[in-house]
């Protein structure tokens, strides 16, 4: 009975699966962050036309959505660092979270 041949240069099947799952997790987190940024842009466009309690409610929604976006960005950074990616300038360019609105 012959044993399977392994090469030092070739990753094991489980290593390939782990890398694929890491990449999928990054994509899912990036997708969530993108959706939150789009939602923030929509809310930001609506705010100037509002006043009173309606504006206050929409502002609270904006602040909560922004906090969620900041959390997702943090998750993305943690995942990248777990994969050995330390330069996050691409994240800053691709996922611009709008500033707080008052």
TrEMBL record:
This is Uncharacterized protein. It comes from Hyalangium rubrum. The lineage of its organism: Bacteria, Pseudomonadati, Myxococcota, Myxococcia, Myxococcales.
